[in-house]
Amino acid sequence: MSLPEALLFAALTDPGRVRDHNEDCIESRPEIGLYVLADGMGGYNAGEVASGMATSLIADGLQETWQIKDVDKLGRGEAMGLSEKLTKEQIGRANTAIFTTSQNNPECAGMGTTLVVCLFYDNFVTVAHIGDSRLYRLRGEQMEQVTRDHSLLQEQLDSGLITPEEAKLSQNKNLVTRALGIDPMVEPELHVYETQPDDVYLLCSDGLSDMVDDEEIRLTLITLKSNPSLLVQQLVQAANDNGGRDNISAMLIHVTSPYGVPRGWLARFKAFFR
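Structure for Protein phosphatase PrpC, as requested:
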């Protein structure tokens, strides 16, 4: 089954109830299984410049480089390695562009953005992230936070300085330790995961995860996964109902069936009848 047929998708971004403009940005390329979310930061409107540059440069760059590599002719392990390599390269390219823009334009000084990238292919997903925007996965009725925040709060949790209960009340929620475009070089965290039919993946900015607790997110995913458009609307509404203190973005991908790539005799058979 083709990627657009196997992956149900919906996305929504909203300024929230406090901010007067939206510094989140989302991009998708369903035809190649690519989804990108960024949450910008910076003075004036520079945050939305950074997030817009990040999502468009990475989406366009990955789409171009992925398609010209003729990936279907590679072995599955080679495809995994290539997906990581190309994703890292395009993130580096976007980082350089954002950093250079911030250095050359006073109104953009200090701008940066968090980032989550998902590239689905051949029953696996390559995940890259920077900062505290997140990827969740629902498998069965168990929800897992796939990404680990690059934040001061997460470092305090990891070191045992605070408890998870104290973290919910912390004033340090928005202090990230890694962001795209702040420094000349950045190191994204990259992993490849096997996917399964009926998996549900949620990319979101902290405007959602800070406003809606994980259990409510989990129950919403379970209840509405067959209707992605309604699901993202419900999540954004819940964040706004709880205060909407930040911009809110959600991207939902529901794996409805396997999307493996034919190889060997099956690939030759299909190619013969094209």
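The first strand starts at residue 7 and ends at 14.
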